[in-house]
Design a protein that fits this description.
The structure is a single chain. The chain has two domains: 4-124, 3-Layer(aba) Sandwich (Rossmann fold); 126-278 and 307-331, Dihydrodipicolinate Reductase, domain 2 (2-Layer Sandwich). The chain contains eleven helices and 14 strands. It has helices at residues 13-22, 38-45, 57-64, 78-87, 102-115, 129-139, 160-164, 171-174, 178-194, 285-299, 311-326; strands at 4-9, 28-34, 52-54, 68-71, 91-95, 119-122, 146-154, 198-206, 218-225, 230-236, 245-251, 255-260, 265-269, 330-331. The relative contact order is 0.17. Bound molecules: nicotinamide-adenine-dinucleotide. Nicotinamide-adenine-dinucleotide binds next to helix 1.
């Protein structure tokens, strides 16, 4: 089987996990690693045969003939780097969120269509089997008409989260705090399950634990959908001890209750649901997401989160942020 030649742009925290989990994926040839902190790029490159290490990703592209890139850089760099790669005809798996501004997301979506480049966004909970089963139960009508969904992300971070990766602390570089960075995974799952346009949002944000950063460490929001459904989210990095993410979806015939992402499971109440399984090979949602992206590029098998599917969650998060500022309900911008 011909392997997809991939470059990795950004060799920080999530890349460590992604590389560990995809090490045995024989469909990928990791050809190069780029990071301005070259020592990080070298550390990864040393683990792969003939892989180059680069300070500047443009050099990697010039030298390594890559077909696709995995992008895991600070949020403010997603837009310029993804745009550059699409323009060069390179397929992209970008870490979430796709970008931090809706007009940039729409511009990239259009450009990807024009250039016939595949752009996926790594909302990997879509490849968590339990989340996937919940969503399939919703899409197949097993839960009946969907009424409402609630998700809670009670995570814990220490000051080092902001000091080790300084970009996390500022609105300009991160675009937001826990809601955009952590909670958006769970919100994405509920939006995917409802498959209905978000229209209005109400929200409130706090710096409950970290006072000398610009972004929120705690957020609550309500998103109203065009189908009449409603979603509630609480996302935080201020919990004293990290607790599991919960996502619960209430429909007229039954309820689906997810707990994860470690040892994830979904329980159904009122209905019996087949064991639907997410596509992609790998032992973890991250590796399945990467493997499915590769299959999308190489043989067209649809990837669960192409760029257009990542836009409803971005638009909803931004509306919650606007509401938190204005103190009023805000329309979710059209996309
Ligand atoms: N899917 C998930 O579960 C998950 C988890 C954590 C982080 N993330 C996402 O991954 C991305 C990176 O987050 P992180 O936690 O790894 O951050 P990080 O700060 O640990 O790593 C970012 C890396 O990007 C490098 N970088 C900066 N500018 C660059 C450039 N121009 N070219 C190449 N590399 C550059 C930095 O030197 C650093 O090594 C973010 O989008 C984040 O939201 C996703």
């Amino acid at each position: 089987m011909k392997k997809l030649r991939m470059g990795v742009i950004g060799c920080g925290d999530i890349t460590k996990y992604m590389m560990l989990l995809t090490k045995i994926d024989r469909s990928i040839k990791f050809a190069g690693f780029a990071d301005p902190d070259e020592s990080r790029a070298r550390k990864f490159a040393a683990r792969y045969k003939d892989a180059g290490a680069y300070k500047d990703y443009s050099q990697m592209i010039a030298n390594e003939k890559i077909d696709a890139a995995y992008i895991a850089v600070p949020h403010y760099l997603h837009y310029p780097i993804v745009k550059d790669l699409i323009s060069k005809g390179i397929h992209v798996l970008c870490e979430k969120p796709i970008v931090t501004a809706l007009d940039h997301a729409l511009e990239l979506e259009k450009l990807a269509v024009e250039k016939q480049v595949k752009v996926g966004v790594n909302y990997q909970y879509r490849y968590d089997h339990a989340c996937y089963r919940m969503v399939q139960a919703a899409h197949n009508g097993d839960l009946g008409r969907l009424y409402y969904g609630i998700c809670n992300i009670p995570w814990s971070r220490e000051a080092s989260y902001f000091t080790d990766s300084k970009w996390h602390a500022y609105k300009e570089t991160a675009g937001g705090g826990t809601l955009l960075t952590q909670g958006s995974h769970a919100l994405d799952i509920l939006l995917w399950a409802f498959n209905s346009e978000p229209v209005r949002a109400i929200g409130s944000t706090r710096r409950a634990k970290f006072h000398d950063v610009e972004v929120e460490d705690t957020a609550m929001g309500i998103v109203e959908l065009s189908c009449g459904g409603i979603i509630q989210i609480t996302s935080s990095m201020a919990a004293a001890k990290e607790q599991p993410v919960t996502i619960t979806l209430y429909g007229e015939k039954g309820t689906a209750a997810y707990t994860g992402p470690y040892f994830s499971r979904v329980n159904f109440y009122g209905v019996r649901i087949p064991r639907y399984k997410a596509e992609g090979r790998g032992i973890h949602a991250l590796s399945r997401s990467m493997n499915a992206f590769v299959k999308w590029v190489t043989n067209g098998t649809p990837y669960y989160c192409p760029i257009n599917q990542s836009i409803p969650v971005l638009a909803s998060v931004l509306a919650i942020y606007r509401s938190a500022e204005s103190g009023k309900a805000e329309d979710v911008k059209k996309y």
